Amino acid sequence: MGGNFPPNPSILFLKNLNTPEHMPDYMQVTILDGYVDEPSRLGVPPYVSPYARYTFGAVKAAGHEPQYMTVDHWRQGKKTDTQLLFIVSGALVPGKYLRTMPISAKELADIIDSSQAEIHVWYSSRPQHTPPGASHVWGCDPDAYLFDLLNGIPSKRRRLPEEWNDWPITGADVFAAHFWPSESLIAELDFSYGCPHYITGGCNFCTEPIFGKPVFRNQQSIIAEARALLKAGCDNFRLGGGSCIASYMAQGIGETDCPQPNPPELKQLFRGLSELPGIKVLHTDNADPGILASHPTESAEVLSLIVKSCTSGNLLSLGLETADPAVAEANNLNSTPDQVQTAIKMINKAGSERGPTGLPKLLPGLNFVAGLEGETEQTYSLNSQFLKEILDQDMLLRRINIRQVSPIRRDFAASNKKDFLRFKDFVRGQIDTHMLEKVSPAGIILKDVYAEVRIGKLIFSRQMGTYPILVGIPDSIETGRFIDVKITGHGSRSLTGLPYPLDINNCSLSALEELPSIGKKRAARLFRARPIDSIEQLKSALDDKALADSIMAFLE
Are residues 71 and 127 in the same domain? Predict the structure, then answer.
């Protein structure tokens, strides 16, 4: 896994760097998790990326004492009293966050300026600036670099197979030291790096092809890491860090950019994970629609395996990026619109049945990237037409992600802002809400929704999982706990719901107003009539027997 890498997958900032010959025999090393956000690896809570765990294990392997803190610890005033401070960060594809945010440029500069420690800041992407007084080193895994640095031989390399086996295990106990409660977090499990599409150069905006031929972790290594994380208090997992779950140990890697899926290898992985006691959530991430569509028999077996082995509410993100064939060709994309439609149909067929969490067992997500080479006004018309066809064919999409292309491997011309915003408004206004109404219809009960944060009169909540749907709850319940929620309404990208069963005698007036067909006047009547201890009292308070019968579904 070693080798030379071009100067843009990762960056290491150095301040007050000791030369190897002056490196002490023993050091106290603090790893500060600034949170990463990558296309195939999430690290902003509720997600926890593997980087902190790997570096924690690497410090132990080098014979030094590691400590762990997050940027949220620092925001709350925790000091970085240490000899060496190693900051892991990099929001490659920044999004909208609910509970916290990745470390900002100002926070990074403040930490560098205020600490007396030797400071190293690793980025998972090319930064837009360099902090004052810092130099940088390109192209390395943070854990491998830190291990070599602590052994007096810093070098730019990827971790070795044996390191990928050992460091995730020895570093797993760092999970228990996270700022946020362990039950509200999801650990990312790497299953590979690289992309089969590298053989033809890969999509020209993506980092994965620069790693060369894909490398896969063996099943026992992944299972052993999950076992160690379970021991550390983690019970939610997401198989991330890879470009395509269906290409795991696929046949033809390095010979074609569309290898044949290998169901027996995936079966061994999922069987081992499903046999571990204590896993509450097991989800996946990316799938290459070109691979799914090109190998329908093997792909159907893979999809069936995922449905049977994983928690319902699962999602496979498909990288359509654009429905414009000219743009797809200009950017060497890995699938055609027809292949993506085929993959969407396959996933719907395998996973649209509703599962124990209240959501369908497995659905596709769709990614669009704006600003690619060759983009025109017609591009957005084709994108819109593609989505209309999906909707007209009654197929389900769990989410549609629209983002501007990031200048990672090269620079791109800015997209037409007017066209981009018009397309985004079309998706949010005419596609997303209809999809949410199908995926989570009014009256459905979502199980184990975590109440995360209060904003105004709403408690914003999500299930644990991959790209969970946001649920706004107009009630005065306390945060930091799991509840069941009955859905009452739909926005463009979020739901509204009430705790189930609703405690009609203690809920807020806003919660009463959210009950179907109640409104403000009837809600006020119910509020004044409390305590309500029987259906007869409820009917009397409403003076409407049919209405009382209908809202009983929220109370029982």
Answer: yes
Classified as helix, coil or strand, 445 is: strand
Matching residue, tokens 């994309």: 333
User: What radius of gyration do the chain's Cα atoms show?
Assistant: 25
CATH number where 355 lies? 3.80.30.20
Domain of residue 167, residue span: 1-180
Same domain membership, residue 334 and residue 410: yes
Same domain, 63 and 194: no
The tally of domains found in the chain comes to 4
Residue 414 is predicted with a pLDDT of 67
Q: How confident is the model at residue 220 (pLDDT cuts 50, 70, 90)?
A: very high
Q: Is the pTM of this model over 0.85?
A: yes
Alpha-carbon dihedral sign for residues 162, 262, 368, 464? negative
Domain boundary among 151, 180, 209: 180
Compute the distance between CA of residue 236 and CA of residue 278 in angstroms, rounded to an integer.
9
Residue 51: closest CA among 175, 154, 150: 175
pLDDT in tens, 13-70: 555 544 445 556 668 999 999 999 987 889 999 999 999 999 999 999 999 999 999 9
Q: Do 415 and 526 share a domain, yes or no?
A: no
- Crossing angle for the helix pair 263-274 and 219-231, nearest 10 degrees? 20
Instruction: Read off the CATH number of the domain in which 545 is found.
Output: 1.10.150
> Is residue 17 domain-shared with residue 104, that is, in the same domain?
yes
Q: Across the chain, what does the average pLDDT equal?
A: 90
Average pLDDT over residues 508-514: 96
What is the helix (H) or strand (E) element at residue 389, kind and residue range? helix 377-392
* Domain stop point among 154, 180, 206: 180
The tokens for 412 are 């791109």
Confidence of residue 12 (pLDDT cuts 50, 70, 90): low
The secondary structure element, H or E, covering residue 25 is none
Q: Give me the sign of the Cα torsion angle 460, 68, 279, 222.
A: positive
Q: List helix spans (H) across 44-195.
A: 50-61, 71-75, 105-114, 142-150, 161-170
Q: Is residue 193 located within the same domain as residue 301?
A: yes
Tokens standing for 491? 């926005």
* 3-state helix/strand/coil string of 239-272: EECCCCHHHCCCECECCECCCECCHHHHHHHHHH
**Interstrand relation of 192-193 and 186-190 (parallel, antiparallel or unpaired):** unpaired
Low-confidence winner among 54-58, 116-120, 296-300, 378-382 (lowest mean pLDDT): 116-120
Residues 454, 534, single domain; the answer is no
Judgement on whether residues 514 and 467 belong to the same structural domain of the protein: no
Contacts of residue 332, defined as CB under 8 A and 6 or more positions apart, other chains included, come to: 197, 200, 201, 202, 203, 204
Residue type, 401: N
